[in-house]
Queue: 2 jobs
Job 1
Amino acid sequence: MAAREAPETGTTVVAVRYGDETHGRTGVVLGADSRVSTGTYVSNRASNKIARLAEGTYLLRSGSAADTQAVGDVVRDAVERLSWEMQESPSVHVVSQITARVAYANKDRLLAAMIVAGWDRRRGGQVHGVPIGGTVVNLPWSVDGSGSTYIYGHCDATYRPGMDREQAVAFVKEALALAMARDGSSGGMIRMVVVDEDGAEEMDVRGDHVPLYHEEIDVEAVLAVR
């Protein structure tokens, strides 16, 4: 009997660096939708795709949920051991390199497109894209997942260097809402984490508060008419 194909998964993840690098006040905003799908079946509508890897460093997961969770566990374990040796938390750059090495060493067995982002005192806010295959690229902003194909142009057109915290949060929120409007594998609620020198702050946007775009139906308005 022929082996069954692995289930397809989809999501949208976004990260952006903000702040004034000249004066050293920078940070990052990470965001993701919460839908986990297996083909056309939504298996989890409230998943958290943002995982903490180290102090001030977070992982955005897209691709196979099992694969990215496994990568996150392996990296977190390596980071904890390295922290004991160094007697301090590794930098965002170091954590991104560890993540890329794990992904590259297993590139033939993983479906894992990830973003590592965070803040450290050496380089401030940083965003590192780790797409399928295990390369790593330092970027001002990064998107990945099935919904990312719908918003690359939007992000190119609306990103501005030196955005403040509020503008960066709005950038991530709008990009995710637009992707969720078009991509059937992205949906649910929006989860965000803001990381800067003051620490990390989690933000959630409930599904019924996510902005609607294009031909989306306002469910509350329809129910009100009935």
Job 2
Amino acid sequence: MNQTQNGETCDASMAVHNFSEKILEQEVHFHVMKLSGGFFLWVGSNPVLSNLAVSMSSKYDSMPLSTLILGDPSDTTSNSLAQRLAKKTKKQVYVSYSLPLTDSSLGLLVEERIKKELELHPELF
């Protein structure tokens, strides 16, 4: 949907999509905001924005560029996930991953759930 604002045409499409799943006995919530040319993904069990990373494709490298905007630089989970999602979707991706890093299999299962949702509802990302 296009709207005119101050004489300029802009894309006003923004969609919000929420889903949850119990993974390894932990309720995990997912919040997706579709943006023009990309999306924001928050993953967590409590409403906390403890970190934020962004990643986007580059014509100079096959691996998307990524950087941490907010949070502990020693925790690379958000960065890595944003990079993999940017590579898969060819979009600019913002990721906030706010789950404890106690179980590595939790991270893999969370990423599989995101990929499943991407396949089921690509129009929401």
